[in-house]
Design a protein that fits this description.
The chain has 2 domains: 245 residues, P-loop containing nucleotide triphosphate hydrolases (Rossmann fold, 3-Layer(aba) Sandwich); 241 residues, Class I glutamine amidotransferase (GATase) domain (Rossmann fold), CATH 3.40.50. It has 16 helices and 27 strands. A hairpin with a 5-residue loop joins β6 and β7. α6 packs parallel to α7.
């Protein structure tokens, strides 16, 4: 039987960081606003920022943002293969949103056929449900040592019969060389490239015109757009290199005296987008730091999630940063642990099956009265949460406050647990691997579980996305303002609305600077 094939377009880059993810998101919003049933797709993503879909599947955070841009629910099929680097243990391989195993590079390359089957299955299912798929490549399509194991760039484009737009980052320098070199290294496969986009240009685009003409003469393909350098995009980014940039972002200049929030910079930091909402608050200074002075002079210190909790804990201890965190705590600084950071702040971490490392037992920082045991089963679920532990801690006294977020963790913590009461979402209409097979009904389970622990001015939780909840986040900030006898800030920001506005702004910039008629002709819309 002939398979149904949606129309497709692939955005590839001359290298990592060229802007593929956000251009893909922009195109999803542009086409959605034109009434087209569009969805994002990235065959294989390697990222430590992930998101849990309604069916409990783990996908790249970038694909969740792209789905948001397309105004649809994120789904496992949008990112069928996710790789999460775990240090010396290799990478955790996630297929259709569920953990398959942890593999070294050579093992994964031998696994290619299975991964490629997952890619094809997911693309075919998306094709059944959508009219247009905006695909994103990974890294460069011209990595000559990896072309024979490629399942994300040209192989995926060929399978989807998708024309390719190649994006080059002029801000890094050598954009014409990188475009020309990519085309030449691809050889016959370069025929799938239909045009180029130059991204992050500063200055007068007329200066580029001779180069645009020359690259067309040399490759036979046109430059269909030059996108300006956008200093502050205002959207979550996938790459950890963006951490310091987001720290200084503000939508408005503010005269408020600032609450200083310090995120401990971990080597294997994961889901750092958890903290983006703080960056948009007018009275918050957000920084990522491994400087003891920053931690000990902060108002709030957050130990973030990690893809290798044990290794990051060891590195913190070797640098003496565990003692800095304890000194901050003793001075009254609010210390918060998120997921892996929550585990680190406990008394002990046990890893009997060596899931994360070869250390079967390690002492934690010891600020929370909990112990964690790693097992082989990962908890992945969207959650609703209710604050159940009353205390002097600002928003914590609002017992009936409902929060939303999601869990992604291998360990189970026991001890002084009971800060939040969680309801986990479950879906019906899923296959065994968690992929959507129709139109599943998602609902929150009747059973409840307890999460989180508090000890004085230290607390922790497994709930990712908890700071996306505007009332909760504002309550935390205002609590610190009260401690410093600063006036309360009643008008917090609406983070969801800010993200949506930023997507619209980016889409407007793309639409104004790229030849959309060329794209529509290319994909025959």
């Amino acid at each position: 039987m002939e398979r149904h094939l949606a129309k497709a377009l692939m955005i590839q880059g001359t290298g990592s960081g060229a802007g593929k993810s956000l251009i893909t998101a922009s195109l999803c919003r542009i086409f959605k606003d034109e009434g087209i049933n569009v969805a994002p797709f990235k065959a294989q993503n390697m990222a430590l920022n992930s998101y849990i879909t309604a069916e409990g599947a783990e996908i790249g955070r970038a694909q969740a943002l792209q789905a948001e841009a397309a105004r649809i629910e994120p789904a496992a099929d949008m990112n069928p293969v996710l790789l999460k680097a775990s240090g010396e243990m290799g990478s955790q391989v996630i297929i259709h949103g569920k953990v398959h195993s942890t593999m070294k590079a050579q093992e994964y390359y031998a696994f290619k056929k299975t991964a490629w089957s997952a890619v094809k299955e997911s693309f075919d299912r998306l094709s059944q449900r959508h009219d247009l798929i905006i695909m994103e490549g990974a890294g460069s399509p011209a990595e000559i040592n990896l072309m024979d194991v490629d399942i994300v760039n040209m192989s995926a484009a060929k399978y989807a019969k998708a024309p390719v737009i190649l994006v080059g980052d002029i801000d890094k320098g050598g954009v014409f060389a990188s475009i020309y070199g990519t085309v030449k290294l691809l050889g016959r496969s370069s025929r799938h490239i239909k045009g180029f986009v130059i991204n992050k240009f500063r200055g007068d685009a007329e200066i580029l015109k001779p180069g645009l003409d020359m690259i067309r003469d040399k490759t036979g393909k046109p430059v269909i757009g030059v996108l300006p350098y956008i200093k502050e995009i205002g959207l979550p980014e996938e790459d950890g290199l963006s951490l310091q940039k987001i720290s200084n972002f503000k939508f408005q200049i503010s005269n408020y005296e600032k609450i200083k929030v310090v995120i401990v910079r971990l080597q294997y930091i994961a889901n750092f987008t958890d903290f983006d909402p703080f960056a948009y608050e007018p009275d918050v200074e957000l920084i990522y730091s491994s400087n003891p002075a920053d931690m000990e002079n902060a108002d709030i210190v957050i130990v973030p999630g990690s893809k290798n909790t044990v290794k990051d804990l060891i590195l913190l201890k070797e640098a003496g940063l565990d003692e800095s965190i304890k000194r901050a705590y003793s001075k009254g600084v609010r210390v918060i642990g998120m997921c892996g950071g929550y585990q680190m702040l406990g008394k002990k971490i046990y890893d009997p099956h060596c899931v994360e490392s070869r250390h079967k037992e390690i002492d934690g920082i010891g600020l929370l009265n909990i112990e964690t045991v790693f097992d082989k089963t990962k908890v992945t679920s969207q959650v609703e949460a209710e604050i159940v532990q009353s205390s002097e801690f600002g928003v914590m006294s609002l017992k009936k406050t409902e929060l939303e977020g999601y869990e992604i963790h291998m360990g189970q913590s026991t001890g002084d647990i009971g800060l939040f009461r969680l309801k986990r979402r479950r879906g019906e209409g899923e296959n065994r691997r968690g992929s959507v097979t129709g139109s599943p009904v998602h609902r929150f389970a009747d059973s409840e579980v307890l999460d989180g622990s508090m000890n004085g001015n230290c607390w922790g939780t497994y709930i990712h996305g908890i700071f996306d909840n505007d009332t909760f986040r504002r309550g935390i900030i205002n609590h610190e303002r009260r401690k410093r006898n600063l006036p309360q800030v009643e008008l917090g920001i609406n983070y969801t609305a800010i993200k949506d506005k930023a997507i619209n702004n980016l889409a407007d910039i793309v639409k104004a600077n790229i030849d959309m008629d060329f794209i529509k002709r290319t994909i025959r819309l």
